[in-house]
Amino acid sequence: MEKYKIVVTDNRYSNYLEENTVFKELGVKVQIHDFAGPAEAVEVLKDADAVLVNLFSMTKDIINAMDRCKIISRYGVGYDNVDVDAATQKGIWVARVPDYSIEEVSDHALALLLSSVRKIAYKDRMIRSGRWNLHKDWPSYRIAGKTLGIIGFGAIGQKFSVKISGLGLKKVLVHDPYIKPEDIETFGCIPASLNELVKDADYISIHAPLTEKTTELIDRKAFIDMKSSCILINTSRGPLVNEQDLFTALKEGQIAAAGIDVCEVEPLPENSPLRTLDNITLTDHAGWYSEESVVELKTKAAQNILQVLKGNPPVYPVNKPLT
Ligand code: NAD
Questions:
Q1: Has domain 102-282 been given CATH number 3.30.390.30?
Q2: Which of the residues 61, 75, 262, 321 has an alpha carbon 20 to 30 A from that of 234?
Q3: What 3-state class would DSSP assign to 27?
Q4: Per annotation, catalytic residue among 18, 207, 237, 264
Q5: What's the sign of the alpha-carbon dihedral 108, 109, 114, 119?
Q6: Residue 151 — φ and ψ, nearest 5°?
Q7: Tell me, which fold does domain 6-100+291-309 have in CATH?
């Protein structure tokens, strides 16, 4: 029998090479499951030492039924599918991987911005349907000399500001109430209030987390305040933008275009009116993905567990368990 029972709750990867490489020194391989519901989870997890969870809901009932578990490690940045309070009470670490896709998401924001400005996705769709000379449809404008606004200046927002610095922008405004103005200035950017940024920017890219305070941060009022030539990019989380207001803004020309990787409801419903608009570029919450980021994610999620089973805190803790 293996020394530790490490369970994967939902099977979303084709192999577990990275995890098993990390656990080699423990002489353990992960046990892969794809739980249909809580009853099956309780049965398997009651004697598990560690849990690797992707999207499966680690509820209070399941957590309370686990008698040996020391850590729940989430594959990803967010952890809203884990009842952290219940885990803390039960003496279980919760951990995550906050930094596996900084390169990918910042690339994706840049790609959506360039696609929107240069109308790449639109032109591709039109050419396939037999059209040409598309510049007559509506005007494009030069990037050099314009103003960019970045909302949320953490790991991804900062990386995005560096990547965008070769485009000849006039200035980059940053709104992040939790970052010191002098730290924003270090990146050659200008600290701004949300209101200033929304009114002044030609392009806006959102990189703040979803919290109570950021829900619908961009709503009807913000769209009305934006320039009619403004392009909005969201690779953060859908609910930061009121989607009905976004539709109206795009439809009625309150803004020029949007590049959207994340929606209020995912997958984007088939009858979403956003699908009918030409001036939006949509991707399927794909900002995080590259083959390299998956390897990094799987390795780091497993390393959180390795550290705890060796008697240390996880590399990226979310809580501090009561023992
Ligand atoms: P981070 O925690 O490093 O940075 C987030 C920044 O947002 C912080 O500096 C914080 O101070 C700031 N912030 C918080 N509240 C704010 C507010 N009200 N207004 C302005 N700024 C505020 O996170 P990160 O790694 O840069 O990731 C940013 C977001 O990207 C994540 O929260 C996640 O939602 C999203 N994300 C998306 C994908 C994808 O596949 N599209 C992948 C990873 C992350």
A1: no
A2: 75
A3: coil
A4: 237
A5: positive
A6: -105, 115
A7: Rossmann fold (3.40.50)
Q: Using CA atoms, how far apart are residues 108 and 60, in angstroms rounded to an integer?
A: 36
Query: What are the residue ranges spanned by the domains of the chain?
Result: 6-100+291-309, 102-282
Report how far ligand 1's centroid is from the alpha carbon of 153 (Å). Answer: 7
Domains 6-100+291-309 and 102-282 equal at CATH topology level: yes
pTM of the shown model: 0.92
Helices (H), 82-119: 84-89, 102-118
Q: Whose CA is nearest to atom 19 of ligand 1?
A: 176
Q: How far is the CA of 209 from the centre of ligand 1 (A)?
A: 4
Cα 213 vs. chain centroid, distance in angstroms? Answer: 17
**pLDDT tens-place values along the chain, 323 residues long:** 789 999 999 999 999 999 999 999 999 999 999 999 999 999 999 999 999 999 999 999 999 999 999 999 999 998 989 999 999 999 999 999 999 999 999 999 999 999 999 999 999 999 999 999 999 898 999 999 999 999 999 999 999 999 999 999 999 999 999 999 999 999 999 999 999 999 999 999 999 998 999 999 999 999 999 999 999 999 999 999 999 999 999 999 999 999 999 999 999 999 999 999 999 999 999 999 999 999 999 999 999 999 999 999 999 999 999 97
